[in-house]
Amino acid sequence: MKKIEIAEQFLSQNINLFKCPNCGMPFQNINNHSVTCPNNHSLDISKKGTLYFINHKINTEYNTDMLVSRRNIIRAGLFDGILNKISSLIPSGKQNILDIGSGEGTPLSKVESIRNNQDTAIGFDISKPGVNLSTSEINSNLFYCVADLANLPFNDDSISIIMDLFSPSSYNEFNRIIKNNGHLIKIVPNSGYLLELRKKLYSDNDQKQNYDNFNVINLFMEHYPNSVTHQVKYKFKIPQGMQKDLMLMTPMHWGKDAKDLTKSQLNELTSITVDVTVLDNKFTK
């Protein structure tokens, strides 16, 4: 099947999850590769098999080269420990899973592989290049779209699992779309995250070598004081030749004080630390 046909099949089976970004009414019909709401607002499914809920140009620094590098290193296993932990926190049985800021799609695809592709899984990102790359991952249960975190195109009480991997949060929108007994699982990097790379990119006295995300975690706990926290920390052995992908996949190398590393300096990195806090809140409405 063509991507547009796979996407149309997915949307036909899950049209109840989506709402119109113009009027907020639930989408009702699919015809000729378009979805339509009761007020006759419609969106066309692209040939790549996605929907664009944002109709204006978005400026993003996440270019295709960065996204491809991110895909390469995640496919090689950089986030496997994180994704295994996320998967272990998701209740058994079919779930409606939403990946916030899904990038090029690999993390959600990997979670679904761990869960034997049993869920209805949707990823969205503000980056059109990222979502276009993601569409190589689509199948009958996996769908990606371009959308705005501040105006999520999903109906109230429609999502059972929100997965937020290093992305910003919109807690009002999360509270609106999450089902009763649903889970919000947010991943926040700790001070040890990719520490070996940061030490190479920045001088010893640069604050970018050491940082913490206390404010992010504290804000989450203010919203959801009954949340459970988990620490996930491990070393990832960098496959030979993928050191450049590791550097390019992170905004760290954009910093104005970041050093231009030579190939030999990069190749000195043989392993990297992954160090994150996993926040898990179960909603009771």
UniProtKB/TrEMBL annotation:
InterPro entries per record: Methyltranfer_dom, rRNA_m1G-MeTrfase_A_prd, SAM-dependent_MTases_sf
Source species, domain of life: Bacteria
GO BP, one annotated term: methylation
One protein family per Pfam: Methyltransf_31
Molecular function, one GO term: methyltransferase activity
UniProt KW keywords: Methyltransferase, Transferase
Segments forming domain Methyltransferase: 94-209
Family matches, as SUPFAM superfamilies: S-adenosyl-L-methionine-dependent methyltransferases (SSF53335)
The protein's name: Methyltransferase domain-containing protein
Naturally occurring in which organism (per UniProt): Apilactobacillus apisilvae
Lineage, uppermost ranks: Bacteria, Bacillati, Bacillota, Bacilli, Lactobacillales
